[in-house]
Amino acid sequence: MKELNLAIEMLLIYLQGVWLRRRYIVITAWVICPIGWLVVFNMPPTYEANTKLYVETRSILDPALQGLTIRTNPDEEIQLMARTLLSRPNLEKIAMATDLDVTVSDRQSYENLIDGLQKNIKLSSAGRENIYVISYANASPQLAKRLVQETLNIFVESRVGNAAADNKKTAEFLDSQIKEYESRLEAAEARLSEFKKNELLTGPTADTGFYARIEAEKQRLEEAQLQMRELEGQLASARRQLEGEDPVMFDYSTGAPAGFSSQYDERIRALQNQMDALLIRYTEAHPDVVETKKLIETLQELRNADIAQLEQAAATSPGSSSSLSQNQVYQELKLNVARLENEMASVSVRVRNYSEKLAQLESQRNTIPDIEAKFTGLNRDYEITKAKYEELLSRREAIDLSQKADESQQDVQFKIIEPPHVPMKPSGPPRVLFYTLVLLGGIAAGVFMAFARSQLQPVVTSALQLKTISDFPVFGLVSHTQKAALLRQNKKHLVYFLGLSGMLLFSYCLLITNEMVFGFTAKQLLGRLL
């Protein structure tokens, strides 16, 4: 508790020392405040131009184009554009568009101009929606408005330009890749075609392998052999049936084929009638009877020779004699034999062909797997190249569709909520704040000067103060002999202090009133006075 009281007494001593040197507060404040207020008063007014922009990233085309085009995230793209809006290339474009670059003469001034633009152009996001506010403050309202307008234009055009540039670069890259893969595909097709021309006759087919071909040839050969054995049995049976049939039908009463008529029949019948008449008159030993009998036998031998000749002709050529009655069963059996012989010959040819193919495949058993492996490799390379080529074509079509969608300006729409505008009254500088800071700074500087003076040339006002600055004991206090005169002087100094302080505060109030009510600047005030 004693230490706390001691600290409070020391604080009071310091305050009393400052109060005794209060003239330094007034003097310092009157030196600093007018100079500071004059500087603030002469600050040129600044006009803040701003614009508000809404970016619509939701489009009715998104559901329709889903899966058909290559789409980026518009929200992320807009946020990236906002972060890169104040990049150096964009700031240089803004300086050139507003003719600020012609106001500087050297490189250092140009760098300062770009740094100033980057510092003073404000881009802020309002809320969670894609609403952006662009603002810029300058002494010239027209320049501030133009600069905000150019910044807005770059913000809007950069998206279209970047999208078009990206689509162009992507399309050029895909075109180069498509050409490369097209040449590779043509080379693969040429190699595959050449391989098919040279090796496909002995190599695998397009849909089966070598061993599958061997099994298929074996199966076809077995089927052909089985069919040939069946035809051999059927042909042997048909030949046996044919041998048991006569080619023509015979009349067993005459011993000749049915319907047969010979040139000797009439003479034989006449001689037989003559023979019957002679036997009535003579015996068989009669010379006429014997001569007639020999003549009849000679004619019958000739007739039998004609019958044998006709039978032979009918056997070799069934239709060669129309005077004989053909045997229909014999003819059908003969036709069946001929049909079976033809089928037998055809099957024999197929069996020989299948046997030769199977033998050829068996002889190529050691070389065909290498050919098949080479064919598989060529076909795999061709399929891979073809798949990549078709994929690149589909992506190229997707890029074209995306570019057309971008050109339709349906994916991202920029809606200007508030066009660039400048208020009638200047937005800065905040003179009220600056006036207040100057006043507080002058008072603080004056207090510091008074405190420093009191410490450099202290005035003893209490026994405790004397005790702390000397090693001598203090036995008591003696009042001033001219205390009344000293009090009058202190009152006079207090009046001066209060008067000067009041004038300082009155000046401060005048400046604040002008700023808040009239808003006169130094230039306007001089114009009115002059």
Question: Key terms for this structure?
Answer:
single chain; 70% helix; two-stranded antiparallel sheet; 530 residues; 4-stranded antiparallel beta sheet; alpha+beta
What features would you describe in this structure?
It is a single chain. Among the domains are: 2-43 and 429-529, no CATH class; 212-363, no CATH class. Helices cover 70% and strands 7% of the residues. The protein has helices at residues 2-20, 22-41, 61-65, 74-83, 88-97, 107-120, 141-199, 210-243, 265-281, 287-316, 328-363, 368-407, 431-456, 463-469, 483-518, 522-529, and strands spanning 47-56, 122-125, 131-138, 250-251, 256-257, 413-421. The chain has a four-stranded antiparallel β-sheet. It has a two-stranded antiparallel sheet with strand order 4-5. The longest helix is centred in the N-terminal third of the chain and has 59 residues, at 141-199. The protein is rod-shaped.
